[in-house]
Amino acid sequence: MITVRLLHRSLLVALVAMCTSLAVVAADSPTNPDTVLISNSLAAVTRRDYDAELSRLPADIRDGFANSPQRVQELLGRLLLQKSLAAKARAAKLDTTPEYAARLALEIDRWLAAIELDAVDRAAAAEFDANVSRYETRARELYLVNKSTYTLPAQVEAAHILFDTKDKYTAEDARRKAEETRARLVAGADFATLARELSDDRGSAAKGGDLGWFIEKEMDPAFGAAAFALQKPGDLSPPVRSAFGWHIIKLEGKKPAVVQPYADVRERILAELKQRFVGERRDAAIAAIRSDPKVTADAAAIDALTPKIDPEALRRAQELARTPSAAPAPAPAK
């Protein structure tokens, strides 16, 4: 198996390297689905094949895929290898042997099932889009009932000075340093200067202790509560202990919670309604099949799929496993 995989990998590398030298057939139009992009003695890859393979990629990758000639060549190489191996399998009539034919039929069924559900999703999405005005009222109702969902939480802008209790100070020493620093600030020392000089949070220290805007739950609970308890820009907190050490916090600014206007969240709400609508249609299609009253089952044949265990034979085997093996007979004396 390892040898086969290495062979396949070698073939793929060779095919990719040869992409630029293999025959490329020109067509009247580069978008003609029957244009042969690359071929060998066994198979050909058309524009239709390329587009079909590209459609399997996520949309965010698909849109810029062709910007890289190397990616395009690698994809064409993989497709040519795949189609060449498939051609050899057909020539050997492997797809007609009972074992492979059954597996092939299952793979086809699996693919057809996937594209049937995709078709259900597409039809439902198209129906929703065609009647979007019908769901506008529902979207407004959801907005009014769930305004908390569409509320931007309160924010503060703050700076801090940290005395680290993890690697540098004991808890008592850090607390004392925080108290001394706060006294210097109250006496008129510049916060940004002391932050650059003393703070153990080197990332914010370089910016004078500035942490920017944040919401309370983004921070350590004790730190967040202390920062949001400050009222006016310029206010200083008492020494605050967090999981990182002792802090002095300075409030720079404060924004109250605000409900976003409906116009700002309309597309989000409609997208959620559309997703729900499509999911319901898919679930209904699956449920209709599962509840088909004409389902029949061969209970005996299904039962035969499960191996039967003789309880008595199992008991004897377990007892035998627990019985110590007899000691080997001593070797005869010479």
Multimerization status = single chain
What's the tally of helices? 13
Number of strands: 8
Low-confidence stretches: 1-29
Shape: elongated
β-strand percent reads 5-15%
Separation, N- and C-terminal Cα atoms: 53 Å
| Strand/helix succession | HEEHHHHHEEHHHEHEEEHHH
- The whole-angstrom Rg is 35 Å
Give the second-level CATH assignment, the architecture of the largest domain.
Roll
CATH topology of the largest domain: Chitinase A, domain 3
- CATH class category name of the largest domain: Alpha Beta
Number of domains: 3
Structural class of the helices, strands and pairings? Answer: alpha+beta
pLDDT averaged residue by residue: 88
**Strand order in space, largest sheet:** 5-4-7-6
Share of helical residues: 40-55%
Q: What profile does the largest beta sheet have?
A: 4 strands, antiparallel
Outline the structure in words.
This protein is α+β, with helices and mostly antiparallel strands. The chain has 3 domains: 2-92, no CATH class; 100-150 and 258-289, no CATH class; 154-256, Chitinase A, domain 3 (Roll), CATH 3.10.50.40. It is built from 13 helices and 8 strands. It has helices at residues 2-18, 47-54, 59-62, 69-91, 98-130, 132-145, 171-186, 191-198, 202-205, 221-229, 262-290, 299-304, 311-322, and strands at residues 36-39, 44-46, 151-152, 155-164, 210-214, 240-241, 245-255, 258-259. Strands 5-4-7-6 form a 4-stranded antiparallel β-sheet, with helices on both faces. A two-stranded antiparallel ribbon has the order 1-2. A two-stranded antiparallel sheet has the order 3-8. The longest helix is centred in the middle third of the chain and has 33 residues, at 98-130.
